[in-house]
Specification:
Rossmann fold, six-stranded parallel β-sheet, three-stranded antiparallel β-sheet, 10 helices, 11 strands, disordered C terminus, binds nicotinamide-adenine-dinucleotide
C-alpha cells in the first residue's frame, strides 16, 4: 500500500498502545519514514500513548480514538485493541474512510465480523487482519510444499494452542466476554488461519478446550482436529503432523504458573530461516 496521493509515506494512526503495539512499532520503524509516518498514537492510558508516540516520532498522542478517526491527514489506522473493542473501532474507522490493519481475531462473533465487513465494503476502504504467522518463513515453506503436492493429499490436521499463563488478575484476556471465547478463539485463530491458508476451507471441526478458571474463563488451552473434505489416508496425516512441528507447543514445558523461559523455543538452526529469511531465536518471546 502506498499513500492515497501515490507518493510519500502512508500516514497512520496507531490505536491501542499496549503489549502487541510494541511489535507493530518495531515493524513501522523497520519500514522507515519513507513508507510509514505515524501521525497520532492513541491509548486510554496517556503514558502508553506518549511512549509509543515518542518511539515512533509521531506528531502527537491522544486518549480519544475519535481524534484519530477524524484526523484529516490520517489515511490508515492500526488497531491494537482488546477484542471487545474491535467492532466498534473498526466500524468507526471505516465510516471515517480510514484503511484498517486490525489485530486478530477480527471480532468476537460472526455478527460483529459481518458488521465490520459491511462498514468496510460500504466505505471502500482496505481491511487486513494481522495474521502475521503467514509471513513466517517456515510457514511460507510449508505452503509451497503443500501447493507442490510434496505430501500428497492431506486429510487431517491437528493444532493446539496454550494461552499465555502469566496474565495479571485483572487482564481483559481472562474474561470470556471481553476476549470472545478462550484460547482457540483468541490466539489459536493464528493456527486456524494457517490451516485455511495451507489447505483451503474445512469440512468439519472438532474442538476441545481445557478450563482452568483461575487462568482464563473461556478456556486456556484448546485444540482442534480439522477434517478436510478431500479424504486421505493415515500416512498423509502423519506427514502433515511433521509440518506442524514448527507450531507445536508441547505441554511438557508448561505448568500452571507459566512457561519455563529456557524451554519456550529451541533456537532456529542455521538451515531453518525465520521471519523474513533471517535466523531467529524466539526463546525470549512472550508466548500468547
Ligand atoms: N499477533 C500476535 O501474536 C498478538 C499477540 C498479542 C496480542 N495480539 C492482539 O493484539 C490486540 C491487543 O492485545 P494486547 O496484548 O496488545 O492488549 P493490551 O491490553 O496489552 O493492550 C491494549 C491497549 O488498548 C488500550 N485501550 C483500551 N481501550 C481503549 C480505547 N477505548 N481507546 C484507546 N486505547 C484503548 C489499553 O489501554 C491497552 O494499552 C488483541 O487483538 C490481541 O489478540 C496479537
Amino acid at each position: 500500500m502506498s499513500s492515497e496521493s501515490g507518493s510519500g509515506p502512508v500516514r497512520i494512526g496507531l490505536v491501542g498502545c499496549g503489549g502487541i503495539s510494541r511489535a507493530h512499532a518495531r515493524g513501522l520503524r523497520a519500514l522507515g519514514p519513507e513508507w510509514a509516518k505515524v501521525v497520532l498514537c492513541c491509548d486510554l492510558d496517556p503514558d502508553r500513548a506518549r511512549l509509543r508516540a515518542e518511539e515512533l516520532d509521531a506528531e502527537a498522542f491522544t486518549t480519544d480514538w475519535d481524534e484519530v478517526f477524524d484526523h484529516p491527514e490520517i489515511e490508515a489506522v492500526d488497531l491494537c485493541l482488546p477484542h471487545h473493542l474491535h467492532a466498534e473501532a473498526a466500524i468507526a474507522a471505516a465510516q471515517a474512510g480510514k484503511h484498517i490493519l486490525i489485530e486478530k481475531p477480527l471480532a468476537r462473533t460472526l455478527e460483529e465480523a459481518d458488521r465490520i465487513l459491511n462498514a468496510v465494503q460500504r466505505s471502500g476502504v482496505l481491511l487486513m487482519v494481522a495474521f502475521v504467522e503467514r509471513f513466517e518463513a517456515d510457514h511460507q515453506r510449508a505452503k509451497e510444499l503443500l501447493d507442490a503436492g510434496a505430501i500428497g493429499r492431506p486429510m487431517l490436521v491437528r493444532v493446539d494452542h496454550n494461552q499465555n499463563l502469566l496474565l495479571p488478575p485483572d487482564s481483559w484476556i481472562r474474561s470470556a466476554e471481553l476476549l470472545g471465547g478462550g484460547a482457540l478463539a483468541s490466539a489459536g485463530c493464528h493456527r486456524l488461519d494457517l490451516l485455511r491458508w495451507w489447505l483451503g476451507e474445512v469440512d468439519s471441526v472438532f474442538a476441545w478446550t481445557l478450563h482452568e478458571p483461575s487462568r482464563m474463563e473461556g478456556g486456556d488451552r484448546s485444540g482442534s482436529d480439522v477434517a478436510l473434505p478431500l479424504g486421505g489416508d493415515r500416512e498423509l496425516c502423519d506427514q502433515l503432523d511433521v509440518l506442524r512441528s514448527t507450531l507445536a507447543q508441547t505441554l511438557l514445558d508448561r505448568g500452571h504458573q507459566g512457561i519455563a523461559p529456557q524451554l519456550r523455543r529451541t533456537p532456529a538452526s542455521p538451515e531453518r530461516p525465520g521471519r523474513n529469511g533471517t535466523n531467529r531465536d524466539r526463546s525470549a518471546r512472550p508466548v500468547r
